Automatic annotation (TrEMBL):
Name of the featured protein: Osmotically inducible protein OsmC
Membrane spanning residue stretches: none
InterPro entries: KH_dom-like_a/b, OsmC/Ohr_fam, OsmC/Ohrsf
Top-level taxon of origin: Bacteria
SUPFAM superfamilies cross-referenced by the UniProt entry: OsmC-like
PANTHER family to which the protein is assigned, alphabetical: PROTEIN YHFA
Pfam families per UniProt: OsmC (PF02566)
Amino acid sequence: MADLHQRPIGATATLGRTGYPHVRSETGGTIDIVTGVSEPGFNPLDLLLASLAACMSMSARIAAREMGLNDRLSGVSAKVSGEKAKEGPSRFQTLTVVFRFEGGLNAAEQLKVAHRAEEVCTVSNTLAIKPDIVLDPA
């Protein structure tokens, strides 16, 4: 994963009187948010799940390299789904990460890589605790 001290991080969402948010990253990337059931694209929940999926896949590759297994890992995908809580504040109750490893890793090695990926991933580490959210209405 990128060194956060070298890459600016953050995002700004802008929203008009009507329509959906437009999001811009600190590095200039953009994405338009959609909320329609059949509209292709990302809604805010998709972005959260996508962040975890991307981080876990990159972290799995890092973990495989740390364990000396990188030569037998030709690819990895991480599919993330979420189950919303039935009670309490609107949130995900459960996040499920399904890894698919390509190459020659056996089941035990895949499990070790998956667990190490969770330890390495900044997004999973952030979601595992309740981070402070500081609001500045200025």
